[in-house]
Amino acid sequence: QVQLVESGGGTVQPGGSLRLSCAASGFTFSVYAMTWYRQLPGKEREWVAFISRSGVNTNYADSVKGRFTISRDNAKNTVYLQMSSLKPEDTAKYYCNAGPPPYGAYSWGQGTQVTVSS
Questions:
Q1: 56-67 in b/e burial notation, b at 16+ Cβ within 10 A?
Q2: How far apart are CA 83 and CA 97, in angstroms?
Protein backbone atom coordinates (compact mmCIF):
# COMPACT_ATOMS: atom_id res chain seq x y z
CA GLN A 1 0.00 0.00 0.00
CA VAL A 2 1.44 3.33 -1.09
CA GLN A 3 1.76 5.98 1.58
CA LEU A 4 2.97 9.54 1.28
CA VAL A 5 3.26 11.24 4.66
CA GLU A 6 4.10 14.93 4.67
CA SER A 7 5.29 16.72 7.81
CA GLY A 8 7.12 19.81 9.00
CA GLY A 9 4.52 22.46 8.32
CA GLY A 10 3.57 25.18 10.75
CA THR A 11 3.09 28.89 11.21
CA VAL A 12 6.01 31.17 10.52
CA GLN A 13 6.55 34.91 10.13
CA PRO A 14 7.35 36.43 6.74
CA GLY A 15 11.01 35.95 5.99
CA GLY A 16 11.18 32.78 8.03
CA SER A 17 12.09 29.24 7.07
CA LEU A 18 10.62 25.77 7.28
CA ARG A 19 11.74 22.34 6.20
CA LEU A 20 9.12 19.93 4.96
CA SER A 21 9.58 16.18 4.76
CA CYS A 22 7.70 13.55 2.80
CA ALA A 23 8.18 9.93 3.82
CA ALA A 24 7.23 7.48 1.08
CA SER A 25 6.47 3.79 1.33
CA GLY A 26 4.84 1.05 -0.69
CA PHE A 27 6.72 1.67 -3.92
CA THR A 28 10.29 1.74 -5.16
CA PHE A 29 11.13 5.30 -4.21
CA SER A 30 14.50 5.48 -5.94
CA VAL A 31 13.09 4.86 -9.44
CA TYR A 32 10.69 7.79 -9.29
CA ALA A 33 11.21 11.47 -9.70
CA MET A 34 9.41 13.32 -6.93
CA THR A 35 7.47 16.57 -6.92
CA TRP A 36 6.22 18.93 -4.24
CA TYR A 37 2.89 20.64 -4.80
CA ARG A 38 0.78 23.13 -2.88
CA GLN A 39 -2.89 23.96 -2.83
CA LEU A 40 -5.10 26.69 -1.43
CA PRO A 41 -8.75 25.98 -0.59
CA GLY A 42 -10.86 26.25 -3.71
CA LYS A 43 -7.87 26.44 -6.01
CA GLU A 44 -6.10 23.92 -8.17
CA ARG A 45 -3.04 22.15 -6.88
CA GLU A 46 0.14 23.66 -8.35
CA TRP A 47 3.57 22.14 -8.59
CA VAL A 48 6.34 23.82 -6.64
CA ALA A 49 9.52 21.80 -7.02
CA PHE A 50 10.70 18.70 -8.86
CA ILE A 51 13.67 16.42 -8.33
CA SER A 52 14.94 13.62 -10.54
CA ARG A 53 15.38 10.03 -9.39
CA SER A 54 19.03 10.52 -8.58
CA GLY A 55 18.60 14.01 -7.19
CA VAL A 56 20.95 15.52 -9.76
CA ASN A 57 18.28 17.48 -11.61
CA THR A 58 15.86 19.87 -9.97
CA ASN A 59 13.35 22.40 -11.22
CA TYR A 60 11.26 25.03 -9.51
CA ALA A 61 8.17 27.07 -10.17
CA ASP A 62 9.08 30.69 -10.86
CA SER A 63 7.25 31.79 -7.71
CA VAL A 64 9.66 29.91 -5.44
CA LYS A 65 12.88 29.88 -7.45
CA GLY A 66 15.82 31.01 -5.37
CA ARG A 67 13.92 30.55 -2.09
CA PHE A 68 13.02 26.85 -1.99
CA THR A 69 15.34 23.87 -2.30
CA ILE A 70 14.21 20.32 -2.96
CA SER A 71 16.36 17.34 -2.00
CA ARG A 72 15.96 13.64 -1.41
CA ASP A 73 17.47 10.76 0.52
CA ASN A 74 16.86 7.53 -1.35
CA ALA A 75 18.17 5.49 1.57
CA LYS A 76 15.41 6.93 3.75
CA ASN A 77 12.71 7.06 1.05
CA THR A 78 12.23 10.72 1.90
CA VAL A 79 12.03 13.93 -0.10
CA TYR A 80 12.52 17.33 1.52
CA LEU A 81 11.58 20.91 0.77
CA GLN A 82 13.67 23.60 2.43
CA MET A 83 11.72 26.84 2.30
CA SER A 84 13.38 30.16 3.05
CA SER A 85 12.39 33.82 2.78
CA LEU A 86 8.80 32.75 3.15
CA LYS A 87 6.06 35.10 2.00
CA PRO A 88 2.37 35.25 2.93
CA GLU A 89 1.54 34.01 -0.57
CA ASP A 90 3.37 30.76 0.24
CA THR A 91 0.57 29.92 2.65
CA ALA A 92 -0.99 26.65 1.45
CA LYS A 93 -1.19 22.96 2.16
CA TYR A 94 1.86 21.22 0.75
CA TYR A 95 1.88 17.73 -0.75
CA CYS A 96 4.40 15.45 -2.37
CA ASN A 97 3.89 12.79 -5.00
CA ALA A 98 5.86 10.51 -7.25
CA GLY A 99 6.61 11.35 -10.85
CA PRO A 100 6.98 14.64 -12.71
CA PRO A 101 4.30 17.33 -12.59
CA PRO A 102 1.51 17.99 -13.11
CA TYR A 103 -0.05 14.68 -12.10
CA GLY A 104 0.91 12.58 -9.15
CA ALA A 105 1.44 8.90 -9.72
CA TYR A 106 -0.32 7.87 -6.54
CA SER A 107 -3.15 8.92 -4.27
CA TRP A 108 -2.44 12.09 -2.35
CA GLY A 109 -1.44 12.09 1.29
CA GLN A 110 -2.89 14.36 3.94
CA GLY A 111 -0.48 17.19 3.22
CA THR A 112 1.11 19.58 5.69
CA GLN A 113 -0.15 23.10 6.29
CA VAL A 114 2.20 26.05 5.94
CA THR A 115 0.98 29.42 7.16
CA VAL A 116 3.08 32.53 6.71
CA SER A 117 1.71 35.37 8.79
CA SER A 118 2.87 38.14 11.05
A1: eeeebbeebeee
A2: 18
**Are 94 and 5 spatial neighbours (Cβ–Cβ below 8 Å)?**
no
* CA–CA dist 118, 12 (Å, integer): 8
User: Do 89 and 17 touch, CB atoms closer than 8 A?
Assistant: no
**Measured between alpha carbons, how far apart are the two ends of the chain, in Å?**
40
Count of H-run helices and E-run strands, the chain: 0, 10
What span, in angstroms and rounded, lies between the C-alpha atoms of 109 and 11? Answer: 20
What is the rounded CA–CA span in Å between residue 74 and residue 28?
A: 10
Tell me if 20 sits within 8 A of 84, measured CB to CB.
no
Report d(CA 96, CA 4) in Å as an integer: 7
| 8 Å CB contact between 58 and 72 | no
pLDDT at 5: 98
CA pair distance 60, 39, nearest whole angstrom: 16
**What is the structure's pLDDT at 16?**
98
Please check the confidence at residue 103 and state whether its pLDDT lies above 90.
no
